[in-house]
Each structure stands twice: as structure tokens, then as C-alpha cells.
UniProtKB/TrEMBL annotation:
It comes from Fulvimarina endophytica. This is Deoxyguanosinetriphosphate triphosphohydrolase-like protein. Belongs to the dGTPase family. Type 2 subfamily. The keyword Hydrolase applies. It comes from the Bacteria. Gene3D superfamilies: Hypothetical protein af1432. Keywords: Hydrolase. The lineage of its organism: Bacteria, Pseudomonadati, Pseudomonadota, Alphaproteobacteria, Hyphomicrobiales.
């Protein structure tokens, strides 16, 4: 795992880290920056994009209008990037690439999170379906329009690879899902992303940081919403053991401080487990290049078996007690109605769309027309979707 210098003031990285000097480049050729690496530029482009700003009004678990302190896609994304940077430093990876993948990973979520995605996938079923990860790739390669010379953000190959494959290969014997989303298949024809191989360790770190963040913070938001009580955490292996040790040391701690201390230690336990497990995997596999990580045949950055079981237990608990709680399901049912109503109305009357979106819609063939409507809808924030639905159909119960 010998280190090497990468220049521009960065610390020496491990041999299996992605080297920005060996980047496969961008779809559209650009001159290099004298002051920033390719991945620093990617991170900055992501942060300054319209899609990034929209995350502040998109649902994580609770609709953005419900309360001020629940997490949104933006705050979740920032939390994921913080954890991912910690991993990058622990393994001496390219921190900028790791952060870029973490910051862009949720760009494709439509309004109301998974509820909106379910509707769009159903509406788009005859036209190749809808997948939020594929939509994120579509946003950064086509839909963002900030530059004079190209559509999209023209991110480096390694950032796009991480976005597309951070959860694992999309084709071949190790594919994590059946079928290849149409937007990814189309872009892969232009710029092949090696979809049968695993992603870089930087992307893998961003992916597991997502698991750590939402498994912790959805518990926290569930407590804030009153859907679960602190005592309910005793049935969980990880959170329950942490609760027990805090109570032993601080028996008179207020509930607010107790909850915050649980969440802080919850993240720390998972992060430390991933570092230990990943270091064992690196020692066993002995990668000497980023391509050795891609060809390892397994995800290297992962939980131990014991922690994986605890994380799965927490996820099951969240599904039963938070995600499928009657109060949440009621709101999400209304949210699905909003997205479906809007899709059908735009399809029936394209003139309702802004001119830059609907001007040529009637002349498009059916599949392209449906995809354009899905593109427009997926870019909406919760608040804009609610306003647009109120304008066209009247106020929606349970959504303000």
C-alpha cells in the first residue's frame, strides 16, 4: 500500500486510491485547471448546481413542510459527505472524489422521495421506467444547463462511474439489480462506465456512508416525530447497547441529550467497524492500483458480518415503526397522488409546462415526451410540486 505524491498540495495517497492525474477524462474535452484537480472541480460544480440547491426542499423521510428540524435530502447529503471524507482520510484515498460522489448521489430523487419515485416508475413503466440513480446521471450529463459549450456538468469519468456504480456493478455476474436503467444504458453507449466492474474505493466509501447516515438519522427523526420512544431502542442490538451504556454513565441525562449522545455513538460504532473491516479486506486482497479494487470481485468497504446484521435489524425496525407508520403512509399517499396527478395533466396538456420544457413536447414521439415530463417532475422540490398541484387541482389534504 505504498503512498505516492499527487501534487497540488495533497497528502500522499495509497496506491489503490484513484489518481487524478490518470483520470479517463470528460465526455467533452476541457483544459486542465492550474489550481484544482479534476475531482476538486467536479465537487465544486456539483455544489454550485441547481440540482444541489433543490435538495434543501426535497423529502428525506418527512415532507419538507412538516417541521424545521427534520432532515431534508440536502442535510442528509451533507451528513453523508462528512462521513465519506472521514473514510477517505482513514484509507488515504482521494478525498475530493469521495466527497463529489457523496454530494451527487441523491440528485435524482423526485419530490417526496421514494413515494415520488414509485409513481414515476409506474408512469414510466412503458417507457423504460424511472430510477433515481439513473436520473442523477441524467441530470449531471444532460439536464443541468450552466455552460456555454455543453449540457450537464461534464464531470470526470471517475465521478460518473462512482455515481452510477457506488452500490455495485450494474451488469454482469455481480450486478446488484436486474436490468439496466435506460438512461444509464444510453449514456454508457456514449462513454462506457465499465458497468460489470465494481466502483473505486472512493465511491464505495460514499455508498456505505449513505447507509450509516440514514440508519442513524432516520432513527433520530423518528424520535423527533414521536413515532418511536427512546425506550423502543432497547430492542435493537446496536442502539440498545449504546442506550444501556449511556444510562449507566449518565443516569440523569435529559432525553434530548440522551438521544443526541446515542446518535453520535451510533455513527462512531459503524464508522469504526467499517474502517476495521475494510482494512482487513485490503490486507487480504492487497490491491496495488485503483483497477485492482474494481476487479476485486467484491465490495471492499463494508460492515463486518455482525454489524451488517445489526444494521439490517435497524433498517427493518425503521420500516415497521417509521417509514410505514400510519401518519407517514397517509402523507405519502397524498404525495403520490400529487405526482401522479401532475404527470397525467402535463401529458394531456403540455401547454401547462413552462415554455422551455413544453414548447416542442407535442411534436416528440411518445417515449421522449414521457421522459421529458418525468425529467421536469423529478426536478421539482416538494414545495413547488405542492404549489403546482394546488394551482391545477386545489389544495391537497395532509400536505399543506
Amino acid at each position: 500500500m505504498g503512498p505516492r505524491s499527487i501534487g497540488l498540495g495533497r497528502e500522499p495517497l495509497n496506491a489503490f486510491a484513484v489518481d487524478h492525474r490518470q483520470s479517463r477524462g470528460r465526455l467533452y474535452s476541457e483544459s486542465e485547471s492550474a489550481t484544482r484537480t479534476a475531482f476538486q472541480r467536479d465537487r465544486d460544480r456539483i455544489v454550485h448546481s441547481t440540482a444541489f440547491r433543490r435538495l434543501k426542499h426535497k423529502t428525506q423521510v418527512f415532507v419538507a413542510t412538516e417541521a424545521d428540524h427534520y432532515r431534508t435530502r440536502l442535510t442528509h447529503t451533507i451528513e453523508v459527505s462528512q462521513i465519506a471524507r472521514a473514510f477517505a482520510r482513514a484509507f488515504r484515498l482521494d478525498e475530493d472524489l469521495t466527497e463529489a460522489v457523496a454530494l451527487v448521489h441523491d440528485f435524482g430523487h423526485p419530490p417526496f422521495g421514494h413515494a415520488g419515485e414509485r409513481v414515476l416508475h409506474r408512469m414510466m413503466a412503458p417507457y423504460g421506467g424511472f430510477d433515481h440513480n439513473a436520473q442523477a446521471l441524467r441530470i449531471v450529463t444532460a439536464l443541468e444547463r450552466r455552460y456555454a459549450e455543453f449540457d450537464g456538468l461534464n464531470l470526470a469519468w471517475e465521478t460518473l462511474e462512482g455515481l452510477a456504480k457506488h452500490n455495485g456493478p450494474l451488469a454482469g455476474p455481480h450486478a446488484v439489480e436486474d436490468g439496466l436503467p435506460q438512461p444509464i444504458e444510453s449514456f454508457d453507449a456514449l462513454m462506457p462506465l465499465d458497468l460489470t466492474r465494481f466502483a473505486s474505493l472512493e465511491a464505495q466509501c460514499a455508498a456505505i456512508s449513505d447507509d450509516i447516515a440514514y440508519n442513524t438519522h432516520d432513527l433520530d427523526d423518528g424520535l423527533r416525530a414521536g413515532l418511536i420512544e427512546l425506550g423502543d431502542l432497547r430492542e435493537l442490538t446496536l442502539a440498545g447497547s449504546i442506550l444501556q451504556e449511556i444510562e449507566a454513565s449518565y443516569p440523569f441525562l435529559s432525553n434530548d441529550r440522551l438521544a443526541n449522545e446515542i446518535m453520535r455513538r451510533h455513527i462512531t460504532r459503524m464508522v469504526e467497524d467499517v474502517i476495521e473491516t475494510t482494512m482487513i479486506n485490503l490486507e487480504r486482497l492487497g490491491p496495488r492500483h485503483a483497477d485492482d479494487v474494481r476487479d476485486a470481485g467484491e465490495t471492499i468497504a463494508r460492515f463486518s458480518e455482525g454489524m451488517r446484521a445489526a444494521v439490517d435489524e435497524t433498517r427493518s425496525f425503521l420500516f415497521q415503526r417509521v417509514y410505514r407508520a400510519p401518519q407517514v403512509m397517509q402523507v405519502m399517499a397524498s404525495a403520490e397522488t400529487v405526482v401522479e396527478d401532475l404527470f397525467r395533466r402535463y401529458a394531456a396538456d403540455p401547454a401547462l409546462l413552462p415554455a422551455e420544457w413544453g414548447g416542442a413536447l407535442e411534436k416528440m414521439e411518445e417515449t421522449k415526451r414521457a421522459r421529458r415530463i418525468a425529467d421536469y417532475l423529478s426536478g421539482m422540490t416538494d414545495t413547488y410540486a405542492i404549489r403546482e398541484h394546488s394551482r391545477l387541482f386545489g389544495p391537497m389534504p395532509h400536505l399543506g
